[in-house]
Protein 1
Amino acid sequence: NGLAAILTIADRLSFDSPRHIGISRGHRIPSKYEKELLRKIETIVVGVVEALGVKEGPLYIQLLYGEKGLVVNEAALRIGGAFEEITIEESTGFSIMEAVIEGALGRDYSFDPVEIQKRRTSPDFFSVELFFVKEGLVSSLTPMENIRLLPGVLAGDYYIKKKERMKNIENATARAGYLVVKGDSIQQLEKRREFIYQKMQVLDEYENNLVIRGGRI
């Protein structure tokens, strides 16, 4: 019906780059700017929906925030690429993936924006780790099934394998894997991230751990 409901507002964390907005190393949810900028974001969302004539389906909006305030960098009819289907369902109870599939098949799906907004204000904190490794030959990896058993880990996997030679990081295709981590507070979330990076190892032939730890969230 053309009415948008904000499901999540995330901070995109990145490695600095002099040429563009940087290579994303993860997302922090909720955004630390959410309380400050929520009304402005809501206004922008309404404007984007009207400008694009969106009536139904997912809408991903990437905003840049700086000296000029909030600027729309991207608006697309898609689910975000940082495992939003996991964090949205975990924080709101709404399965956006199921809704998109059902909608594409012309079927009805349940969507209660009022209930979603109530649940979205609950104190859940998430970190989506899009992790990288240093250059080197991968000799061994901590089994991901072990990592997924650690406190707060909702999902995770490697994109790399043993005997693969990792090259210099030039863009997002160099990612070594991902993790979705949940905490009851930002402090608990940070402790869980630290514990995960202590346990997760990608070793080269000289027993050096190649995993690049993401900075603090």
Note: The longest strand covers residues 125-133.
Protein 2
Amino acid sequence: ELREVAWRVYPTALDNLGLQEALAGVSERCSIPIRTDFALAEPLPASVETAAYFVVSEAVTNAAKHSAATEIQVSVRKYGPVLVVQVEDDGVGGAKPEGSGLTGLRTRVGALDGRLHVHSPSGGPTTITAELPCA
């Protein structure tokens, strides 16, 4: 229930600080060290920034709760007209792609005609990649 409430709450940090600083806030709140590679030269559509924020937030939350990870890597880069958001943890893997959080991410990313990939073999690592069209 709490996850559903949080899912619907718009992250006001996006409006006030932008995507990079909003993601820095996610990193600060996480108990696992996060290395971030953020490379964007121009602002993105608000819907894309929002989806990117939720992908990172959900993936980091899942890693902290379920993966026994000691480190998380977040990459946010634009390749042509597509924003690629990747979150990888060094945990035990075995994430269930049909879990409510990942299903919600698929819906959010799909609403933008994007794609969400989850690779989480048993033994790890888990990599979640979202491809979000920016046009």
Note: The chain has one domain: 2-133.
Protein 3
Amino acid sequence: NSIDPNTPMTTVTTVLVPDNYDNDKLVVAGVYEDSYSSDCAPSKRLASGNNIFKNVAISYQEMFYTTLLHEGWVVTVPDHEGPHSAFTSGRLEGHAILDAIRATLKYDTLGLDSNSKVVGY
């Protein structure tokens, strides 16, 4: 994790599911998070209902995955900087994104096909 590379860590992914979702389409959205503050974590931003139009980069990304939701894609948005907001920790961020994909695919209640098409940005 961001404190000790030999200790496992947990993080959060927020799964957005449209009413018309296809059980074989998943998008992982590694959204812009330019801060060492956990206040900028995607899950916190989504849960608080912050106005997306306050930041052009964030609003562009959120409009992009909103379009995918309308097309029936399930979208998973991980807190890819981890629980300590480890800004610019590429390896940690990569693992958090891959773990978010695995966790979302294995979430039985959602019922995604294990051979789902998975795309990300």
Note: Helices lie at 42-48, 56-70, 90-106.
Protein 4
Amino acid sequence: MEMLLLFITVGFLMAIQIAVPFIVKRTVVFGVTIPVDEVRNKQLLQYKKIYAILTCILSLLVLAIFFIWSSTVDMTENHLIFAGLFLPFVILFISLALYFYFHMKVTAYKQQQQWFKDRRQVNVSELNLRTKDEMLPWFVLTIPMVIAIGLIVFTLVNYNGFPDKFPTHWGPDGKPDAFTTKTYLSALTLPIVLLFMSGMFLGINELTRNSGIKLSAGNVKASRIRQLRLRKYTSWLLLFISILMSMLFTFLQFTTLYENSVSDLLMLTVPLAFTALVLIGTVLMAVKVGKKDSDFDVEVIQEENGEVINADDDRYWKGGLIYYNPEDPSIFVEKRFGVGWTLNFARPLGYLILFGPLLVILLITLL
């Protein structure tokens, strides 16, 4: 069962990495801005195809090597844990290495072609576009926080009923495999972690809402739809994952209080279902957003004026992945490789919202 889950997870990851160049917005190729009239450039399309083929072949080769190795040894739980960490890391490393290779190729090709020379670059915005924004209101994202507070109250009321040894880690089989002496802090660790994680998701949602909506000149209609979809489905995904976390943490807290109240099969199934649902939700978001203003969008771009093109803002992107623009008030901006958001690393508030709760959680778990 664990081996099947491992291969399904790695398969999902591999498929996503293969598809990434085709689901990012059309005017960005391997982190490099291109004009809207070059989105069907044969050389650039060839780079994308080669990336996809190499990522697929190398990832399958890694899986084949692992499968051969696993058939020659007696697989233990530690082996599975190691594989669960190692295989996704290797596939991400392969994808990232190929990304940087093609990023340099596209950068050199762009400099050679001089697409942006002597052409007027503009940034497009629509004053009434935020009225069409369908992001969830902030108070909806407080539902998981209310659940976390309720779980804290439940834990305090039933503190004496919890066992003297409190679980701190659950193994691949869904059973606790590490314990600590019961204290108020150890009993409240899961609810407090849930509260801070829910607060972090709420913060991300609100900072995303306040981020700029960037449209592409010459491709305004498609980029408008993509931006609105990205914001809407990001908000829904944050709520979805936050609710799932609330259900998982509540389940773990209840099973700690009421020992042996659920079967071993259920203890194994619930964390697996959580992982599967998060993967499915992430893929659905990528599909919903990625099929617009990408290579999967069959709508032909109609330019009104070939001398006016989308702005080249490559100077703000380090390696096409890290965004650093002190002039942009946005905390989060759309990724250039992948579907979703990345930080504007010139804005300290982003660090606080993203890493502050994680630091608090780390301190709580270490105490």
Note: The chain has a mean pLDDT of 85.
